[in-house]
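Please, structure for the following, as tokens.
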Amino acid sequence: MTSYRTNLKVQQANSFYNYTVGLDVTDVDLVKTATNLLKSKIARTVCFSDLKCVYLDVDGCVQLEWLRPQGRQWDSHWEVKFSDNLPRHTAADLLFCLELSFLEQRIESPEARQMPSHLRAALPPLVLERDGLTLPIHPWLKLYSDGILLISFQLDAAWSGLDEGDFIQEIVNLFQQYFDRVWVQEHLQRIDAEQELLSDLGSELSIGGQRVASRKTQRLIKKIRRDGRAVLEESLRKCGRAFDISGESCVLHQIAGSEGQSDWEATIDLCRSIYVRAVASLVAVSGRTGGRAPQAQLWQGRPSISLMRFVDQPDSKEKLLEEFGPSISRVLGRHGELEDPPALPPDLRLFGDYCFHGDRALLLWTWLRMPDQPDNVWEEDNTQGRLLENQARAEHFEYHNLRIARACATASSPQSDEDLVEAYRVLAGAEAVIHHSGQAGEITDALDYLLAAAGTKGLIASGKEQARWHLDERRYRAEKKRGRVDRWLTGVFGLVGVAGFADLVVQPLLTDMYPDHGEAWTGLYAFSLSFAVVGLVAVLISIINILRR
């Protein structure tokens, strides 16, 4: 009987808490959105997928940088030269974006590219505090032109040997942890508060789902908004706190209204809500000026975790799965007290350099350690590249997963004909998109497996049926409406035809036969006789058509 190690001691891990949001728009103007992000001061640098970027210089003016990396696709590196006047923080952000762009081109070929254009930006950091523990979080934004955005909260941590159960509770399930204080940028809080006061209250109140509209409710809504803005201004009027994050000083404020509170929802999910709402309000839609800001139609979140160093880390997959298989299964299950964890899902990495496991709740990358590698993984030159390679694969899956999920949600309750047609187009081509999603079979097979494990692939067939049903219903309604219009037109042109037949044929005949009748009576008789003849012919045609069915 094989003896398994039952306790994983984690020393270094890197986590990307990826929240993917599907907006209710599918045509985003990336250039205008980038301008809005810079003007609102929640981003200082925005890089586009075609390697052009806009940034704020030291004077606060918007500048354009055209990145032209030198290197071939299958080389192991690129060379790029920045402008001499490029700010230091902008260069650091662009290096991050360039490295991810380099890795994304390894995933998809230029000829069969399935991903739309996108922009990427570093959002203001946030800090979580609890019991003397301070966790700096680095958020990143990736917004696609079809209205899917991804916000990633990156956390890198090291321990002397964190117990497996504590690692699962404090890192893997970070979204369940409450913190004493949450520090967020002032501008983000203002934008989020305005959107919350507008969208959550609206212009009416409701009781039991039934709207209540009156002068009293209008006064109550205005009072709630006034009190909310007063709390916001009072909280943000206080001096913020300076944090040294990645060698740069950042002034952050506690979330408005949370000072002195001990029983409020101080979780990373609250941060997700603040960032998503603020970013969505700045998204510009092509061809639309003003009006309602885009809203989140649905969202999904799951961490992508890299176990980089742990005690007795093996140098081969066979040893890793033999000694730490149950521990990896517990991490995937996000439950540290499973005495008999389920069998591991298949390893999605075909080569022997690391293991990649994933399911509905988590993407887990478990690294191996060769005997000559240092204890501190950051002493290796390629650590950042390996982490971003994992994140690029995670973003690849998250985009395709939510693209299909949003199309299924739209197909079940479409808001417009354009949304319905777009949803049906996405679902009809989903299988082909998955098949052509990567240059390597490993990438395509991993995406196909993860979509099935997340349950999204099983929604495609039913989503197409729902979309087809709504399309048929709209076609039936259009044909029914067209039929009513056709019947009215038939009646109008029938009367015109009867009048013409009476004037040109019947009336001259009746005038010759009965010359002593008045002209008015002759015309009336001619119209009545023509109407009777045409009506009789119409009835006979209808009877014949009925008998032929």
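The chain has three domains: 9-180+265-454, 181-264, 484-548. The first strand starts at residue 10 and ends at 23.
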